[in-house]
Amino acid sequence: MLLEVKNISVWYDKAMLINDVSMGVDTGELISLVGPNGAGKSTLLRTITGLVAWEKELTKRSTHGEIRLEGEITFDGERIEHIPAHEIVKRGLILSPERRRPFKEMTVIDNLLVGAYLIKDKENIEENLGKVYQLFPVLKDRSHQVSGTLSGGEQQMLAVGRALMSNPKLLCIDEPSTGLAPILRAEVFQKIAEISKLGITILLVEQEVSTVFKMATRNYVLSSGKIIAEGKGEELLKNEVLRKTYLGL
Length: 249
Known about the structure:
Blueprint: E1 3-12, E2 15-25, E3 30-34, H1 41-48, H2 51-59, E4 67-75, E5 78-79, H3 85-90, E6 93-96, H4 108-115, H5 122-135, H6 137-141, H7 152-164, E7 170-174, H8 182-197, E8 201-205, H9 209-215, E9 218-223, E10 226-231, H10 233-237, H11 240-245
Parallel strand pairs: 3-8, 3-9, 6-7, 7-8
Antiparallel strand pairs: 1-2, 1-4, 4-5, 9-10
Helix pairs in contact: 4-7
């Protein structure tokens, strides 16, 4: 497995947000993580990519509530649950965050170059930039436009493009369709499928179950911080209780 999560639990004060979760992603897969709002999907992604551990360190020096993290996360054969987030990025585990979060006062090209901040090889940066522009031609057209003036769909493409600049071995994409009109959602999902076909491993968190089940190699269903089901889309959709109670179908 490229990514193996074993018995991960996360508490914020006394609230358990992730409850003994185990899951895995193999090289070349497109794995979806779905479930109702508040299930803990984004928290799980933030845990995998080192951001919860970073927040845990911050709470030691603040008045905020305590964060507890238990379990093991192995990426590319190395334990990473206590490695700083920027070191995890260096290893190729990259997060494209929920709600896109561009640096709104910076241009498109500057946002993309921020994604390559840890890469020192200029030829590699230029090569990655070319790949991003080929995948998202609109970003090349808007390369000198301030990113805060882009449409929601364009900002989502920018967020994914910025993550691709970091040489991902595993690209985690959090809720890419949030706030987008149906036609833009379809375009974003099409681009994610194209990225998968390029051989980049993807872990996708998304609410659009019917769409991602058609794209994904396998799927995990998360509810109240626990994995309650795993399997191929067609298998999961045969479960009537799962469809109505957890998938909203």
